[in-house]
Amino acid sequence: MSILYGWGSCEVGQLGPVSTQESVALVSQPTIVSWPPPGVGKHLVKLSCGYRHTLALDSEGFVYSSGSNEFKQLGHERRNDALEMVLGIRERVRDIVAGPYHSAAITVSGRVYMWGCNTNHQLGRDDFEDNEVGLLNFNHGTIVQISLGLEHTIALTEASEIYTWGSNSQGQLGLGFCSQQPIATPQLVEALVGLPVRQIVSGANHNVLVTPSGSVYVWGSNTQGQLGLGDVESQSNISVVPRRPSRTENSSNSKQKNVSVPTPHLVKSVKRRGVTYAACGETHSALLTKDGAVFTFGDGRFGQLGHGQGLISVGQPKQVMELMGDTCVQLMCGRRHTLVVVCNPSHSRPRPRPIVFGCGSEGQLGQPNLQRTFLPVNVIGPWYSREASPSNFNTNFTEPTLTAVFTGGDHCFAFTHHSGLVNCAYCWFVVNTIVRKSFVVGKFVFCQTKEFHILTMTTPSRSPLLDFRKWQPCHLSNIATFSEPLIRRYIEGLPDRQTSASTRRSSSTSSDGPPDISEAIYCLENFSMKSAFKRLEIAFGSIGCLASSLLADHGMDLDAAQALQTELFLAAPFSDARCLIRPLVETICRPRSNFPDLECLRVFVFLAVSPLLDTPRKDTFNVPDNSGEAGTGPAIHYPSNMAGFDIGFVLAAFARAVCRLEVVPLSVLDAWFMDFQPRFFRRLVANLTNFVAYRYCCKRQVEEVNCFNYQNATHAALELLKRLHEINQKRAERITYMTFYIPELTDRFDDRGFASWLVQRNSNEKQIDSFAGQSPPPRRFRFWRSKSVPPKRAQNNNDQNFTIFDYPFVFDVACKAKMLQTEARLMQQMAMQNFSNAVIGATLTRLLGPIPQTYLMLEVSRENLISNTLDYLALQSKADLKRPLKVRFTGEEAIDDGGVLKEFFILIMREILNPAYGMFKVYKDSRMLWFNENNLESPRMFAMVGALCGLAIYNDNIIDLCFPTALFKKLLLEEPTLDDLKELDPTAGRSLQSLLDYEGTDVEDVFCINFETAVDHYGVVERVPLIPNGCDIPVTHANKELYVEKYLDFRFNRSCKEVFEAFKSGFFDVCSGYVIRMFQPTELHSMVVGSDEIDWQELRKHTSYQGEYWDRHPIIQSFWDVLINECTLQEKKNFLRFLTGCDRMPIFGVTDVKASLEKYLLNLLNPKQLIKLINIGCATVNALVCEGHKVGTHQWPSGGRMITIQPNNSGDEFLPVAHTCYNILDLPKYSSKEILATKLKQAIENTEGFGLV
Fold first, then answer.
1. Which residues of 382-411 are buried (b: 16+ CB within 10 A; e: fewer)?
2. Topology of domain 198-230+259-384, CATH
3. Do domains 36-196 and 1096-1176+1199-1246 have the same CATH topology?
4. Which 3-state string (H, E, C) describes 533-567?
5. CATH C-level class of 36-196
6. Averaged over 545-554, what is the pLDDT?
7. Secondary element (H or E) of residue 966
8. Containing H/E element for 843?
9. Residue 55 forms beta bridges with which residues?
10. Distance (Å, rounded) from C-alpha 54 to C-alpha 67?
11. Which of 468, 592, 768, 1243 could form an SS bridge with 781, CB 3.0 to 4.6 Å?
């Protein structure tokens, strides 16, 4: 059983029926108080104390009071020295709060009754004289916590909103101003909207708020530094609402300096200390941290700070050093004293004990000398052993255990548990307490007061020590949060699970009498399905509630957040799901660019893993009706869509809300996303790409037009994707860049729109803005890997300039290839036009068209290929290099419609690798090339190679140079890594990796290397230091990472700096457009050198036939059987070179990209322009013959395939003929498969040279 003890002032009976021999004004030592009152058979649940009165709550929900009734704060007119029932409360009460001179009670239904002093409308009533017990007029939700100051009231709702009313003379209402005019109507504290709140507590004229993450916010009076914000004078600049002084007012008051903070401020000095609990005295405050430390600040004249003598006040939180070594678990502040409960964790059985410091003139310290104490001292009571306790505690009880304490103005209470006791109570009294808040743990309830009185409550069978550091989010004294027990209770109450749930509930709550009020309120078994769902609904409508959900030591438990949301929305009927989703979207869609605290941003983390963001890529399933009945869903569950909302409804709201954030919260969110597990990060990216793909592919009508328009939503999704793409580059565990691809955009490539975008980019007419929701002005968008567009004032909404081409990372490599070739065609046409204008003038060019020789004609001999090419390119300007390239070999009869050009690139690249030039080094293990640090060639040679690579790209060719990915990283301004070295030089890469992986500290002895590397200069080995004096600096365990970094820098940068810069200059002389920077290094690598992995069955699938040939023709079947099954891999590649001019495949596979690119030209140019191009023999028209389009009188055969096979009406004596320019094979009608095999192999052995057929 439990016993209540009390000590302190009992001048007006605030200690209740104390068991003393005679009437006294104070009790200096803990003394037993009789409980229950006559006629009450239930045990005590909670006590709460004001300055001079005390409230008590029993297990049936009835409230009792004793003490001063000067302002009718007792709620009755009977004896003040006995705990009498408060009249006028018509409901069962679950929580009580006593302020200095007024009182409050929260009922089971969530309504609030108030009574007592109303001089400043602190009861929420307009009539100052109305101080009877009455219901608070509050229509802003359910109040879960309420705290009473001297003349003001502060309340916390279930939705984590703070409301205040009463006096605002010191800014204690937190409204941003001070006013002598009191406020009777509850006012929302706008500065704290969206903030997760764990606890609220009031002092006389100041308030303290604690968040679940340990942040502390304060506002109100700061005359003694009780807000902990530092220098008191620095907080005096406030806005004061002027009021005309009355004639009766003391004139000196208007001159008195008022130090107040009317707007909530963060206490930065304890931001990282993990504050879990706060207590307030009249003009001082105290904080309890998660590791059991106590910090105090404010007025210290009476020793209530515990820092020793000499400190009148402390302006910032300061740790009470005398309590170090003990773990504080409970903290209370009286009017001018502080009481804590500590445990010594070093003891095998730590016994909790109360420690007190501060003013002792009324006996509130439990010390017989009634003097103030500046340092913590023990309160001697029955919780100590008999030897250490006074004789009046010598009872037959065995090892009483302290379970909780409470304190008021000048009186205190302590509750102990004794095994085998009858139900009685001891109380020790303190005068004038102010309750800060009620706090519940398990079946125990305690309340904090401004000046606390102390109480503990236990059940007859079990009495654990209350630990204020632990937060129970499911209890009704806390805000509504998304928690597993609540979800379980809701799901178990659904119709299909009702039977088992009701059986369990009835068995668990059966008893002989009415349920204990503590059990009924705080035990989840007594929650109904409807009440659990209501609490979930409130949580989903509040940013602060969701940000407080599923918290662990490291932050939010993302696994639980994802799993529980999935379970909830799978089980919930559609109507219930809509009730949860609608307030969620409305909450995050409210215009807001910032939050009061960064922990509010956890709501975005909660949503980032939510199944509500799951979005289908195509609208291939039926949307359920809005009947609300659970039905058969699709194979993949999309909760928001199944609830009747349009696809991407929640995702769009989420993306827009993130885009509206300011720089600081965005940077914090970026850091959190950077630490996401890859599966969560990948899923978020996939949902965003699915939504964009759906928007570009679906034909469904928009339904949710009132919440967002789809263009705006798509823009927001792409902006968030761009941010995640940037974050991914910095993540330790990156996801592949291909996760960001939207392949559907390739099939729906808008070449006309892309051409327009390119024109605008080149003419600097395009203004690219980043998305900022509905908050003007928009921030400037920085183009991917390129210089930003000069800022230009936006004339229209930024969505009007929105185009998907601003987000190149969503395009796959095939689409980028289309974009690159489109840009190349435009550049070539512009270069041809400019050349023609320079030769014959712009007027004649407009009348007659460009001259036929507008392409770049290169004539070379096979014997002097390098010198001819180098000399010719040296004579061309950058603008000339952008014209279409044609090649003619000296002495050969051939018209270059593409085939000769392919042959040229093959031969020139083969010649470049000639060891006589020594330009590149070949690594045998990887068969890759890198710049030779010992080459003797001039930079002009490397510039030519770079220009040839650029010309190959711009003229739709691939080259046979096996460069590593590191080269293309350097071209795109990325630093090569150790993985790149492993690709180029596997042996060196593995050696460096083994060095990094070695965990021993004897690196110097094991590896025996210095900061140097060996370079072979034609047989002479030279030692090159990697850092200054590197030859004498050994590699150790401490500097091995630096060694690897410097080694990579030497191999990829220092050793080839001059020649690489020449190569880069030549490359960008040709490829100077925007598209080339859109590529990833690996993509650009494949774009330049192609792929040697060829799917021959896919090649057959994309082959077209003319004449009498078709796929099942006997000759065609024999042809494919010979090629695929009888030819070697090298012979197959020779065939591909024989037919197409190259033995490698484009990166986009065997399908012909040229068809769609030239279709762009058909759409882009009008018929007259095309006819002119045909008549003048423009090179770009040659590809049009594969398309089958009619322009004017010109008809081209249909195609669009990789290769075409046609008969040539010849016999067995003829060889196959390849039209390399058009990828057409003339295949004679051979009489047998054997002859076909012989002739085909004979033809492909000679793959060089051209002639006219």
1. bbbeeeebeeebeeebeebbbbbbbbbbbb
2. Methylamine Dehydrogenase; Chain H (2.130.10)
3. no
4. HHHHHHHHCCHHHHHCCCEECCEECHHHHHHHHHH
5. mainly beta
6. 88
7. helix 965-971
8. helix 842-848
9. 48, 65
10. 6
11. 768
Q: Which residues lie closer than 8 Å to 619 by C-beta, 6 or more apart?
A: 647, 694, 698, 699, 700
- Secondary element (H or E) of residue 209: strand 206-210
Of 785, 758, 780, nearest in space to 768 by CA: 780
Q: Which residues contact 1159 (CB under 8 A, 6 or more apart)?
A: 751, 1187, 1189
Architecture of domain 855-1089: Alpha-Beta Complex (3.90)
Q: Which amino acid is at 1119?
A: F
DSSP class per residue in 1048-1088: HHHHHTGGGHHHHHHHHHHHHHH--SSGGGGS-HHHHHHHH
| Rounded CA separation 971/1084 (Å) | 10
Residues 344-359: tens digit of each pLDDT = 766 656 688 999 999 9
pLDDT, averaged across the chain: 78
Domain ranges of the chain: 36-196, 198-230+259-384, 539-620+638-700+708-740, 741-760+803-854, 855-1089, 1096-1176+1199-1246
Partner residues linked to 354 by β-bridges? 341
pLDDT for 287-327, tens place per residue?
999 999 999 999 999 999 999 987 888 999 999 999 998 99
**Catalytic residue set:** 1221
In order of 932, 1020, 1099, the CA distances from 1016 in angstroms are: 10, 6, 45
Share of the chain above pLDDT 90, in %: 38
Minimal CA–CA distance to 687: which of 731, 650, 661? 650
Is CATH 3.30.2410.10 correct for 1096-1176+1199-1246?
yes
Confidence check: pLDDT of 257 > 70? no
Which candidate, 649, 635, 639, 485, places its Cα nearest to that of 569? 639
Vertex 1221: Cα angle to 1219 and 1227 (nearest 5): 20
Please name the residue ranges forming H helices in 731-812: 744-747, 751-762
Kindly state the tokens that stand for 490. 């809701």
Is residue 1237 scored above 50 in pLDDT? yes
The Cα-based distances of 655 to 648, 717, 720 in angstroms read 10, 5, 6
Contacts 24+ apart (CB under 8 A), 81-85: 81/10, 81/12, 81/13, 81/16, 81/17, 82/13, 82/16, 82/17, 82/37, 83/16, 83/17, 83/35, 83/37, 83/54, 83/56, 84/37, 85/37
> Are the CB atoms for 643 and 671 separated by under 8 Å?
no
Nearest residue to 806 (alpha-carbon basis) of 776, 783, 831:
783
